[in-house]
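User: structure tokens for this one?
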Amino acid sequence: MVFRFARIWVALGVLLGVWGLSAIRRSGERAWVRPLGTHVGPVRILQFYASVGSLTIGQKAQLCYGVENARSVRISPPITGTYPSPNHCLEIVPERTTHYMILAESFDGRVATQSLTLPVLPPIAPRRPLYYAVAETP
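Assistant:
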């Protein structure tokens, strides 16, 4: 029975070997050099917050973050203008309650994450004045 599937096992071994060698060859292309003046240490998220606790549909808010020892920064859902910085804010206009997640990757491939949820409330309807009918008594 083992000899029956020997060709499959040999082919699988060759395939994994070729894949492993190509991964080793590509790893040199992804090497990053830490810029001069950056501190040595683990990647950290210093701050991640919204400028308001909640907002109504159509209102704007600031989503602020700060990272240390990061090679790259991504925020989900995607927001343009993100980059590694100790203090940076982006303008957001969410249409519904949104769960934001920040991911900071270090130069050695380690990752730090943090998240927050920004509630978006429906607009407050203006109150209509109450009209009272006064009945005359005879």
